[in-house]
Design goal:
Blueprint (H helix, E strand, L loop, with lengths): L3 H7 L11 E2 L4 E2 L16 H10 L29
Antiparallel strand pairs: 1-2
Length: 84
């Protein structure tokens, strides 16, 4: 669940499909999100997206609170402190 720019330039798991929770320039929530779920780079949007899934009836929801990149380490590198 990343933006198109994140999907293209930050990366994504092999075989992943791009399904935005919201997308610029207006950052409106994707009305087709629930049937097309994926994952979030930073974890900032995934809490709201998880809530939407729960309201839609999903019961097995997992949320990586730090996103797949995780927090920056002391050298400003991702994927060293947390995330996956």
């Amino acid at each position: 669940m990343c933006s198109e720019i994140e999907y293209l330039f930050v990366g994504h798991p092999i075989g992943a499909l791009h399904v935005p929770w919201n997308e610029g320039p207006d950052w409106a929530i994707n009305p087709d999100f629930v049937p097309q779920v994926l994952i979030c780079r930073s974890g900032n949007r995934s809490v709201d997206a998880s809530d939407a899934l729960e309201k839609a009836g999903f019961r097995s929801i997992y949320n990586e609170l730090n996103g797949f990149e995780g927090d920056l380490d002391e050298s400003n590198h991702c994927n060293c402190v947390n995330g996956w």
